[in-house]
């Protein structure tokens, strides 16, 4: 039977995902088989496993930190918001249905068997399971049907670390107030408190920590600093999307769509010295980038309407007319076409005009495409012609099919690689994506995760500006991520009381 420990927070974005990942890395370094687990994740950043199943990227990041392959067992329920009041509900990696928030809250207790089946399967594979909560355990209007915070801790008999975010202020009130709103049984599950994202001299906190421990009758097992590390973020609250970024020698502008998904597609560029990645949500912010990237979205039609109404679309079209290349992925690719049609009401229903940069139309279908792919770029023309013949791996997650007009140039050649362990890959190749005059579109998420692809893009943009590309793209991204996980573990070892945490793990509840 695996041991467990659960990281819960006083609010969203308190740093639960990173702390859970850091603990996964520490336990791995110490020789344990460790696995992450989050019973229910609400996020628009998702991933396709080797078997073609969909899960949240936060648990993929934690699996990387743990040194194991991602599995839907780590995230049995994924909620992908489609609008302000409803979400697509994905269970065990497959779409169950789209539900309103009210309907889902009535239904979710029926998913407990799926949650526990996944958890028990992980127990057979790991020595320690690091669970992550969601939001706050003190949402008193939701507690009766909770399946992700204290409800999950009870089901798994998991001791809890409660994390507060000092960076946003009021951390003592966060922690003490959360503890006050917990029931006695829930309070007994909390074995330690953590103050996260601290900047400054810890000795200044000591009097408050002493009072907090007296109020809560729980030990503070760490004051973790604000960590300068580069790993994937959980959601669009991410500081990556701050509009206070300096423009680099090579400037990439990502359109910050209201329902942006899988913006992690572009993280790799941020690791390259001299390259800036700016997230644009106002037309005036666009400026004169070297490449415009339009990311995925959970609602293509809604977000294209937003681009049109906000003036962002007009700014993108003007920049393209002046020679700036545009690259769209998934929903961003769909927007680049001439028409969007939604006969089944999958998104907004009806039809609308696209941006008109690619000679194609997209028809939304009720069936979701979920597949892992390998592929190569075809004969690419225009500014990014250096991509020709470059290999990549990635995955597709989308509703709808895009159909090019006769003679439309395709961007890539791919083959599906979904398979159960031990099964051969499926090698049927097919053309995918489209390109026009310095416009490129693909359904493949993760297409930039290959350093060969990134090198080709950055070098092409640098040479166009007369910049020496040497030194701009000289990084092994896989090794870079490993360094970041190790750095995070080293920081947490310094600032968390790991002896106390190991005692908590060993003692359980």
UniProtKB/TrEMBL annotation:
HAMAP family cross-referenced by the UniProt entry: CobQ
Listed GO MF terms: ABC-type vitamin B12 transporter activity; catalytic activity
Every CobB/CobQ-like glutamine amidotransferase domain range: 252-451
Metabolic or biological pathway, per its Swiss-Prot or TrEMBL entry: Cofactor biosynthesis; adenosylcobalamin biosynthesis
Catalytic-site annotation from UniProt: 330, 445
Name this protein carries in UniProt: Cobyric acid synthase
PANTHER family assigned: COBYRIC ACID SYNTHASE (PTHR21343:SF1), DETHIOBIOTIN SYNTHETASE (PTHR21343)
UniProt keyword Hydrolase present: no
Keyword Cytoplasm: no
Domain of life: Bacteria
Gene behind the chain: cobQ
Domain CobQ/CobB/MinD/ParA nucleotide binding: 5-228
Organism: Eubacterium ramulus ATCC 29099
Function: Catalyzes amidations at positions B, D, E, and G on adenosylcobyrinic A,C-diamide. NH(2) groups are provided by glutamine, and one molecule of ATP is hydrogenolyzed for each amidation.
């Amino acid at each position: 039977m695996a041991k467990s420990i659960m990281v819960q927070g006083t609010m969203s974005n308190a740093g639960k995902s990173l702390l859970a990942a850091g603990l996964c890395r520490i336990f791995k370094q110490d020789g344990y088989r460790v696995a992450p687990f989050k019973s229910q994740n609400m996020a628009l950043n998702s991933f396709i496993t080797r078997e073609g199943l969909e899960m949240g990227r936060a648990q993929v990041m934690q699996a990387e930190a743990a040194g194991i392959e991602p599995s839907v067992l780590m995230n049995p329920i994924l909620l992908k918001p489609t609008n302000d009041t409803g979400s697509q509900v994905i269970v065990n990696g497959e779409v169950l249905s789209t539900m309103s928030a009210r309907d889902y809250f009535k239904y979710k207790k029926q998913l407990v068997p799926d949650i526990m089946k996944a958890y028990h399967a992980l127990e057979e594979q790991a020595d320690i399971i690091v669970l992550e909560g969601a939001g706050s355990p003190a949402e008193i209007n939701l507690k009766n049907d909770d399946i992700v915070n204290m409800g999950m801790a009870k089901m798994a008999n998991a001791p809890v670390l409660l994390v507060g975010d000092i960076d946003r202020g009021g951390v003592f009130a966060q922690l003490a107030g959360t503890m006050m709103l917990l029931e006695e049984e829930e309070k007994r599950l909390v074995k330690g408190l953590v103050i996260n994202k601290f900047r400054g001299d810890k000795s200044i906190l000591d009097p408050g920590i002493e009072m907090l421990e007296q109020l809560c009758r729980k030990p503070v097992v760490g004051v973790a600093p604000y960590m300068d590390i580069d790993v994937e973020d959980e959601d669009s609250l991410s500081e990556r999307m701050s509009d206070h970024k300096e423009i680099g020698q090579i400037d990439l502008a990502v359109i910050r769509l209201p329902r942006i998904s899988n913006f992690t597609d572009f993280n790799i560029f941020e690791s390259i010295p001299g390259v800036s990645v700016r997230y644009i949500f106002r037309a005036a912010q666009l400026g004169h980038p070297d490449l415009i990237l339009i990311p995925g979205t959970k609602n293509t039609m809604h977000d294209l309407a937003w681009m049109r109404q906000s003036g962002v679309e007009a700014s993108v079209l003007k920049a393209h007319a002046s020679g700036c290349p545009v690259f769209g992925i998934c929903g961003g690719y769909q927007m680049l076409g001439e028409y969007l049609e939604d006969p089944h009401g999958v998104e907004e229903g009806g039809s609308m005009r696209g941006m008109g940069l690619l000679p194609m139309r997209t028809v939304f279908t009720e069936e979701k495409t979920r597949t892992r792919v390998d592929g190569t770029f075809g004969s690419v023309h225009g500014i990014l012609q250096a991509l020709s013949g470059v290999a990549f791996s990635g995955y597709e997650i989308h509703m709808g099919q895009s159909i090019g007009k006769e003679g439309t140039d395709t961007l890539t050649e791919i083959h599906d690689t979904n398979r159960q362990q031990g099964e051969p890959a499926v090698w049927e190749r097919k053309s995918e994506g489209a390109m026009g005059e310095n416009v490129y579109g693909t359904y493949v998420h993760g297409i930039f995760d290959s350093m060969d692809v990134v090198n080709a893009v950055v070098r092409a943009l640098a040479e166009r500006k007369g910049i020496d590309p040497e030194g701009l793209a000289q990084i092994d991204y896989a090794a870079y991520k490993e360094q970041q996980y190790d750095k995070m573990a080293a920081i947490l070892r310094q600032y968390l009381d790991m002896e106390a945490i190991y005692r908590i793990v060993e003692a359980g509840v």
